[in-house]
Design brief:
single chain, 177 residues, mainly alpha, 2 domains, 3-stranded antiparallel β-sheet, 3 strands, globular
């Protein structure tokens, strides 16, 4: 194409064969959860300046994933009912603290079977609990979903991926424990 030929594509148009999603209104932990889910699904994605770029052949999968990202909590059987006591019990906070510590240990030792088993126990302890006082439904859903997915990854993912995802879960939990 000659240099003086008009260019009909806007400067911010995605490359041909690519789809760009604007995630500027998403919370950081929501973006982390989406990135994690995309990796879990094997979707190649690039995130820069709150814009997610994918291949156009993955668009339908990504649209479905975005539409149903936090529905997975119900499918996993996690309890989302509010705790009517209005007070987080000591057991709730202990369980969350144990999950935080287990995720932190997994961040550094993703190939250690004992650390993996301790993480699974911590997830089981949190899985049956109701929504702790002070937690929003969406945040609790992300925590329980990420923890459940990470347990699934323990059986087949490499230690680097396990450590990366454990770090994201730990970072999300850090603000609550």
């Amino acid at each position: 194409m000659p240099d003086d030929a008009p260019n009909d594509a806007p400067d911010d148009a995605p490359e041909e064969g690519k789809v760009v999603y604007d995630l500027s209104e998403w919370e950081p932990d929501q973006v982390d959860t989406l990135e994690w889910a995309l990796g879990r699904e094997g979707v190649v994605a690039f995130l820069r300046d709150r814009e997610l770029t994918i291949r156009d052949e993955d668009e339908a999968r990504v649209d479905h994933l975005i539409d149903h990202l936090f529905d997975a909590v119900d499918a996993e059987g996690m309890e989302l009912a509010s705790d009517d006591s209005g007070d987080a019990g000591t057991g709730d906070m202990d369980a969350l603290g144990d999950l935080f510590v287990a995720a932190d240990r997994l961040t550094h030792r993703g190939d250690d079977r004992i650390v993996c088993a301790e993480f699974e126990e911590a997830v089981e302890a949190v899985a049956g609990r109701s929504l702790p006082y002070g937690f929003e439904d969406g945040v609790w859903a992300r925590i329980t979903t990420m923890a459940s997915w990470l347990v699934d990854e323990l059986d087949g993912a490499g230690p680097e991926l396990i450590e990366e995802h454990a770090g994201k879960l730990r970072d999300l939990l850090r603000q609550y424990v």
